[in-house]
Design brief:
Elements lengths: L1 E3 L1 H7 L2 H16 L9 E5 L4 E10 L4 E9 L13 E7 L5 E6 H20 L6 E5 L5 H11 L4 E5 L3 H14 L6 E4 L3 H5 L4 E4 L18 E4 L12 H6 L2 E4 L2 H7 L1 H8 L10 E2 H5 L13 E4 L4 H18 L3 E2 L2
Parallel strand pairs: 1-6, 7-8, 7-10, 8-9, 10-11, 11-14, 12-13, 12-14
Antiparallel strand pairs: 1-15, 2-3, 3-4, 4-5, 5-6
Length: 328
């Protein structure tokens, strides 16, 4: 069994590769070639957290996986990841676990890459400005993903904690300097989204974190943080303004995401407003962006196929390069 840490994974796998892995995962999912039961979600209300178990299987890859990812937002105050996780990669021919990967980092990579894939497929080609709301455990990968798929001049970031925001901006300007994108701190979410071509929200909020009426024409918006029915970081106004609404998996989103469930329940939108899954765009079954004026929304909650494909590609590269720790 090969044990792969965050540093091991960083040695062999890039965000651009993660975006391509997610595209492959979404395509497999839309073709019906992956078995992905809805994830098991066990709440831990005493600690404001949740235990999530995500199995997946792709026969043509001879591979299965299960991710254990536990979401505890209060961890950020303790200086530890808010989404601790492990991915177990399983040989589909023998049932043997061949690798255990740092699931926190795999989750960050593939979740950032989901927004990256959506932006790559759906955003305006000439996008130059980005906005990021939230600076928690998923934020760095979300930021890198938008830089990886579009040549951005600037990304404005907002967080309720000014101290955390300033530390994040300083760190990202250092870590992501090779992209040539300026990362700046915004004083409000209004300031962050003003004139932004790409907008990502990644927070555990139970109320909207941006004003949907202030999203500009032609923008593409990815909302990532809402993974339970009571969570709602997306302003429903943006859904009424959007020309198209896409998902990683409509079924998964409708099983858990308040961003969509709440406005559905109160009649702000109906299922007729949905365009479809990103995998169907990649397969050419449904249209993507058709002009530069459309506002497009992408909602992702994550599907196990992403973890499987990403983990398999990381494992194969690590094996080829002799990276990782062998545990007999």
């Amino acid at each position: 069994m090969l044990l792969l840490s965050k540093e091991d994974i960083k040695q062999v796998f890039t965000m651009k590769e993660a975006v391509e892995a997610d595209k492959e995962a979404f395509t497999l999912f839309s073709k019906g070639k992956s078995v992905v039961p809805l994830r098991t979600n066990i709440s831990a209300p005493k600690h404001g957290g949740a235990f999530l178990f995500m199995p997946s299987y792709v026969e043509e890859m001879e591979c299965a996986a299960i991710k254990i990812v536990n979401v505890f937002p209060k961890n950020i105050d303790k200086g530890i990841p808010s989404t601790p996780a492990q991915v177990l990669l399983i040989d589909g021919t023998t049932g043997v676990v061949v690798s255990v990967l740092d699931g926190t980092y795999v989750t960050q990579l593939r979740t950032g890459a989901a927004s990256g894939a959506a932006f790559d497929v759906l955003a305006r080609k000439d996008a130059k400005k980005g906005a990021l709301i939230g600076t928690g455990g998923q934020a760095a990968a979300q930021l890198e993903a938008m830089m990886a798929v579009r040549s951005l001049d600037e990304v404005k970031v907002f967080d309720l904690s000014e101290e955390r925001l300033n530390a994040f901006v300083a760190q990202m300007n250092m870590e992501l300097a090779s992209y040539g994108t300026k990362v700046t701190a915004a004083k409000s979410s209004d300031e962050a989204i003003a004139d932004a071509d790409l907008v990502t929200a990644v927070t555990p909020s139970t109320k909207p974190v941006f004003d949907g009426s202030k999203i500009k024409e032609g923008a593409t918006v990815s909302c990532v943080g809402s993974y339970q029915p009571h969570m709602q970081e997306m302003d429903p106004v943006i859904l009424t303004r959007a020309s198209k609404i896409y998902f990683d998996s409509e079924e998964a989103v409708l099983s858990e995401a308040g961003d969509i469930l709440i406005p559905l329940a109160d009649g702000t939108i109906t299922k007729e407003d949905f365009t479809g899954d990103l995998g169907d765009v990649l397969l050419g079954k449904i249209a993507g962006r058709e002009n530069d004026k459309e506002i497009i929304v992408f909602k992702t909650v994550g599907i196990g196929t992403q973890d499987l494909v990403t983990a398999k590609k990381i494992y194969d590269k690590a094996l080829a390069k002799g990276v990782g720790t062998v545990w007999n």
